[in-house]
Specification:
alpha+beta; Beta-Lactamase; five-stranded antiparallel β-sheet; 14% strand; rod-shaped
């Protein structure tokens, strides 16, 4: 060898860090790629699941709101239909009874025209008849003249009095309104609130009034409809109970709630097994009701979504996704509430599962990466070692046999280096032999030259002459 690396350099290369090796760098690259892929896949999957779950939850809530609204609407329309039918029946009864009265009055008026009875007697008989008529056990007729003085009334409080200024509970002039109606249309229905005999307060009443033109009388009869309203309220209560049982079973995402408030913030329908008394009793609950009421849409069928931290149960504030709609005919507010953590839970669970799966795949990938990289870089390292051995005169071609047996590019490299190493070793051996031979030749030439110089020197010449002289004397 003509040169050699310093021992410290060789030692440093031999003891280099394992992470400086190509195999570990490849394994590290594989790990980085796997981790990056795992993070990207997990984030995408979690967001996709959360988005899909949120869309499904929104669709479910929307469908429930629509279904509940339709159910309430049908039930309410049934009650309204009953109420309208009952009132229509009462109105028909009033009109039929009034037609009978008109027939009786026409008969008396015809008798007057025929001269069979005087006008005064006919009117007296008519007023007595009107005062004594009863139907439905409690309904009667009343009669007023143009001045709106009661000329026939079963209630002694009104008989003979001018009731022009009589008002109902709402402050409207009752008889003035009736007279205005009959002057314009001849007959019709008039709604007002009036105090029933024995009743503590005014109640709704419908009267059928007509103007008997031959005598210019305002004649009418009325019925109270509090019983109809009571029955309607009873039916609404039954409907509310039925709806409460039906809606109480509605759930969303495990911890979700569905409930109904009225416009005063009272819980009308509560889910089964859920205590929502906090909404009406606690300051936090009342504040939550205010938040909900502030978002109530004006139009039925519109759903408003809120993400709020409110108190719906107990005293614990929680993040909820609230969907609010309204049903104005009953002044109801429909509310569905789903905990935000329920919506994010599938994403979290998926993230955990993905993380565990990715860790498992990472370990498999690292193991496989190290094995594959070792298979790839092992022969390269053997070539590197062979190059180092070649520089240290320790090259052994058989050390590359395993790498040279491969059929890929690494095998080509190993075989090429093996041939090159053998050639270099052989060339160096021959060069050393040539150098050794050249040295012997050089040494012999130098010896001959030195001997020639010695024998040709004056000293050697004198010495040789003396030796010859001595030999001559000896033989003589």
């Amino acid at each position: 060898m003509t040169s050699a690396e310093p021992a410290t350099t060789v030692t440093r290369k031999a003891n280099r860090s394992r992470w400086a090796r190509l195999s570990y760098r490849i394994a590290l690259l594989i790990a980085v790629l796997l981790i990056g892929s795992a993070i990207a896949t997990t984030v995408f999957s979690v967001r996709s699941v959360q988005r899909t779950y949120s869309q499904q939850s929104t669709e479910s809530v929307t469908n429930v709101h629509k279904s509940v609204t339709d159910t309430i609407s049908v039930a309410n329309k049934n009650v309204i239909a009953y109420e309208e039918a009952a009132i229509a029946s009462r109105k028909n009864q009033l009109r039929d009874q009034s037609n009978a009265v008109v027939t009786a009055l026409d008969a008396l008026n015809a008798a007057v025209k025929a001269g069979q009875i005087s006008l005064a007697d006919a009117q007296a008989q008519a007023l007595l008849y009107l005062k004594t008529i009863r139907y439905g056990d409690e309904y009667y007729f009343f009669t007023y003249n143009r001045a709106l003085t009661a000329i026939s009334h079963p209630d002694p409080r009104f008989e003979g009095k001018n009731l022009r200024d009589l008002k109902d509970a709402d402050g409207s002039y009752i008889l003035r309104g009736m007279q205005k109606l009959t002057d314009a249309k001849g007959s019709g229905y008039y709604n007002y609130n009036f105090t029933k005999l024995g009743a503590p307060k005014p109640i709704p009443k419908i009267s059928y009034v007509f103007n008997y033109k031959p005598w210019d009388w305002l004649v009418g009869t009325g019925v109270y409809i509090d019983d109809i309203q009571a029955e309607a309220d009873s039916r609404r209560a039954a409907v509310r109970k039925t709806l409460s049982d039906q809606f109480g079973a509605v759930t969303f995402s495990g911890g979700g709630l569905f409930f109904v408030l009225d416009k005063k913030g009272n819980v009308v329908v509560a889910p089964k097994g859920k205590d929502l008394t906090a909404l009406a009793k606690t300051p936090a609950g009342k504040e939550s009701v205010k938040v909900i009421e502030a978002s109530v849409p004006k139009k039925d069928g519109t759903i408003v979504e809120l993400n709020k931290s409110v108190t719906l149960q107990g005293n614990t504030k929680q993040d909820w996704v609230l969907n609010v709609s309204s049903y104005n005919p009953l002044n109801w507010v429909l509310v569905s509430a789903v905990p935000q953590q329920d919506l994010t839970a599938p994403g979290r669970n998926l993230a955990i599962q993905q993380a565990l799966l990715q860790v498992f795949l990472l370990l498999i990938g690292l193991t496989a990466g190290i094995l594959i990289s070792r298979r790839i870089t092992g022969p390269v390292e053997s070539v590197t070692k062979a190059a180092r051995d070649l520089s240290e005169d320790k090259f052994n071609p058989s050390d590359l046999d395993a790498a040279a047996s491969r059929t890929d590019e690494v095998g080509d490299l190993a075989r090429a280096f093996q041939r090159m190493g053998v050639d270099l070793v052989e060339r160096e051996r021959k060069l050393r032999e040539q150098v050794a031979s050249l040295k012997v030749v050089i040494d012999r030439s130098k010896l001959a030259k030195d001997i020639g110089e010695i024998t040709e020197s004056e000293f050697f010449q004198d010495l040789a002459a003396k030796a010859a002289e001595m030999r001559k004397k000896k033989f003589d």
